[in-house]
């Protein structure tokens, strides 16, 4: 167990986050958001803004320089008069101080030719279409057997629809860019990002630069949850503003502006149909998903993807339909796809268990499979059943009275619920260098991101282990695009992908080391592309089981989670202390999803109404019980040199279903519309 190696730097304030980079005479940016939900900008009157002392520049569609690439509509900042959604950045002021910039932004007069925006997701929306493919590059629809016939032939049937709201990532550190153009025409960005290399590539393309002409520096990042996995408009705007005023600029997106500009989880409408024999054996699974994208850019979340891999059933169909609304483009939020998809599937399984009179743990065990149902591939390892059994044992599941409203503690109804969890084990190619210094220390570099997860520490441990050196002798450097190229901190792929590159670089270094290290040091590097491409064909996923106990106040409908246990099988756990935090953090986000988190769309004006953490509720300490997260020893030779599967996202998957199932057990009320707020129970 190793605490974060940068922990002291963080708690003493020495760790530098993007906004804090000291640059000479920085200017400050304040952005203006569209007040129309759809339409055209007729005019931008900046006269009074420009008169304010200290204002350096006003940027909008009327004067912004043309970007070299506008193919990503989300990032084509100020490139046209079109307003695609309310809250879109339509102008910005650059000024000597942030206060001046904000005041001047307030003075801008923007006139719109506005139309009524179409912002409501419905499953009968005429604009629904089948995307070419969904986000992971797989087909939108799949079908095996004859699901319709199989459903009607089944002894037990469930046909239910679940809805999940839009949810917003709320990292503590806002999206921040400090942009600085160097004298040689290159650009340096101090950025809060989940991927320095991908950020570098995207920004270079947008400004028509070579990749090497952009440097992204981001050694410390205060959370992201997917929202910082792709560059957001703030980065383009800051770079544009810095070029305009010929000075470094700083731009941190205020939380109030974040809800429209930095991504969110799509709302979903999911119809689940299950058909089973009387003993609970699944015969058919049909999962039809409706979700939203924007007019700016297609984003088709892979919501039904987990339904393709979870349970044995000869007949199955999954579909995804999206509609392009006048809304910001949805983006990644912790376990995009798996999170809403498994909420629906695992809630429906609970409904099937109740309908068939079978214990919900037993029902899942009975429908386990030894190969991935749709692809037919063997699993590299799959320990779902072991997780369920271990969890049932630890949680005290045995002897549970399945009847709803069967337990009471004073005014509170008590119930327990279970759900399964899964997340893909991905491996992305990347590079790393390892260097032996003459003083006996090692420097290992990779453009990986530590967004607070402990990734840097895990990589340092892997390097030390491979080099057979003390951890204290390893200098682990991440978060800089000038280091060897790395994939994004997303899809729970970081430790596996970067770890492979680090291990291979360290192995190569060890081979080259013999005798004294010369004054210039000895360096070795690795590129894992070939190794990643040569991976054998296996279905690779982590699995888990979530257990929750809730207490529901019979008078107020208030739900309190009193106990929660997650048991995970995610390959080798590299660093238990930070891994546990990832699991617990994911489960905590699951509490938020189940009971609190909801971005409310204003259908008249367009845009989400939430503006801060008073309006967007996430669990506070008092909402979170002593969550227990444990894992099974899992040895899987088909993954990567570490045998690690990835742990950042699986903790949230299934957590909301377990809580919803517990609420049903406690109250007898099946809420199929998240979040489960008190009025829905009364
Ligand atoms: Mo994760 S939502 O892929 O950063």
UniProtKB/TrEMBL annotation:
Molecular function GO labels: iron ion binding; xanthine dehydrogenase activity
Instruction: Please state every residue range assigned to the domain named Aldehyde oxidase/xanthine dehydrogenase a/b hammerhead.
Output: 12-116
Tell me which EC number(s) this protein carries.
1.17.1.4
Say which domain of life the source belongs to: Bacteria
Q: Keywords for this entry?
A: Molybdenum, Oxidoreductase
Which InterPro entries does the record associate with it?
Ald_Oxase/Xan_DH_a/b, Ald_Oxase/Xan_DH_a/b_sf, Ald_Oxase/xanthine_DH-like, AldOxase/xan_DH_MoCoBD1, AldOxase/xan_DH_MoCoBD2, AldOxase/xan_DH_Mopterin-bd_sf
The answer to whether the entry has keyword Cytoplasm is no
Q: What is this protein called?
A: Xanthine dehydrogenase YagR molybdenum-binding subunit
Q: Which organism is it from?
A: Actinomadura livida
Organism ancestry: Bacteria, Bacillati, Actinomycetota, Actinomycetes, Streptosporangiales
């Amino acid at each position: 167990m190793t605490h974060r190696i940068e922990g002291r730097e963080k708690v003493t304030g020495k760790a530098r986050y993007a906004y804090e980079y000291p640059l000479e005479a920085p200017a400050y940016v304040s952005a203006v958001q569209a007040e129309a939900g759809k339409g055209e900008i007729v005019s931008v009157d900046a006269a009074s803004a420009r008169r304010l002392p200290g204002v350096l520049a006003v940027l909008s569609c009327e004067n912004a320089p043309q970007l070299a690439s506008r193919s990503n509509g989300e990032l084509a900042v100020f490139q046209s008069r079109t307003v695609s959604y309310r809250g879109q950045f339509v102008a910005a002021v650059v000024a000597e101080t942030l206060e001046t910039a904000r005041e001047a932004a307030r003075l801008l007069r923007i006139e719109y030719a506005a139309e009524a925006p179409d912002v409501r997701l419905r499953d009968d929306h005429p604009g629904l279409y089948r995307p070419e493919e969904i986000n992971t590059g797989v087909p939108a629809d799949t079908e095996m057997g004859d699901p319709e016939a199989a459903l009607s032939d089944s002894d037990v049937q469930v046909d239910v629809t679940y809805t999940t709201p839009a949810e917003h990532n709320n990292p503590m550190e806002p999206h921040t860019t400090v942009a600085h153009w160097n004298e040689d025409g290159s650009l340096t960005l101090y950025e809060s990002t989940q991927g320095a290399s991908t950020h570098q590539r995207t920004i270079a393309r947008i400004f028509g630069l070579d990749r090497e002409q952009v440097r992204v520096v981001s050694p410390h990042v205060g959370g992201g949850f997917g929202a910082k996995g792709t560059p957001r408009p703030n980065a383009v705007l800051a770079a544009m503003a810095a070029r305009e005023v010929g000075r470094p600029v700083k731009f941190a997106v205020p939380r109030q502006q974040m809800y429209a500009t930095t991504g969110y989880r799509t709302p979903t409408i999911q119809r689940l149909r299950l058909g089973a024999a009387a003993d609970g054996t699944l015969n058919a699974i049909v999962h039809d998903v409706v979700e939203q994208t924007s007019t700016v850019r297609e984003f088709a979340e892979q919501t039904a993807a987990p339904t393709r891999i979870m349970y044995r059933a000869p007949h199955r169909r999954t579909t995804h339909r999206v509609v392009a609304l006048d809304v910001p483009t949805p983006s990644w939020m912790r376990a995009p796809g798996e999170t809403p998809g498994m909420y629906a599937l695992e809630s429906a399984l609970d409904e099937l268990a109740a309908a068939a009179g079978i214990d919900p743990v037993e029902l899942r065990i009975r429908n386990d499979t030894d190969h991935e149902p749709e692809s037919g591939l063997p699993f590299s390892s799959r320990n779902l059943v072991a997780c369920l059994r271990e969890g049932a044992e630890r949680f005290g599941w045995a002897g549970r009275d399945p009847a709803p409203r069967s337990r009471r503690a004073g005014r509170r109804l008590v119930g327990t619920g279970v759900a399964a969890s899964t997340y893909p084990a991905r491996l992305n190619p990347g590079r790393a260098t390892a260097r032996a210094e003459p003083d006996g220390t090692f420097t290992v570099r990779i453009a990986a991101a530590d967004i607070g997860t402990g990734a840097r520490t895990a990589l340092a441990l892997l390097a030390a282990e491979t080099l057979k050196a003390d951890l204290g002798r390893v200098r682990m450097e991440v978060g800089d695009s000038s280091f060897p190229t790395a994939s994004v901190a997303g899809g729970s792929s970081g430790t596996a992908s970067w770890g492979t590159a680090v291990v291979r670089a360290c192995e190569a270094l060890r081979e080259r080391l013999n005798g004294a290290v010369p004054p210039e040091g000895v360096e070795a590097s690795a590129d894992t592309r070939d190794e990643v491409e040569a991976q054998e064909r296996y279905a690779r996923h982590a699995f888990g089981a979530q257990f929750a106990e809730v207490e529901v106040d019979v008078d107020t409908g208030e739900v309190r989670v009193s106990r929660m246990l997650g048991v995970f099988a995610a390959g080798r756990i590299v660093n238990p202390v930070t891994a546990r935090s990832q699991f617990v953090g994911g489960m905590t986000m699951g509490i938020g999803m189940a009971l609190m988190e909801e971005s409310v769309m204003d259908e008249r004006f367009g845009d989400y109404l939430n503006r801060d953490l008073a309006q967007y509720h996430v669990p506070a300490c008092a909402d979170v019980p002593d969550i227990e997260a444990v894992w099974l020893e899992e040895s899987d030779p088909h993954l990567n040199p570490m045998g690690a599967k990835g742990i950042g996202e699986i903790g949230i998957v299934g957590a909301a279903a377990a809580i919803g199932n517990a609420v049903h057990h406690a109250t007898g009320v099946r809420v199929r519309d998240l979040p489960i707020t008190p009025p829905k129970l009364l």
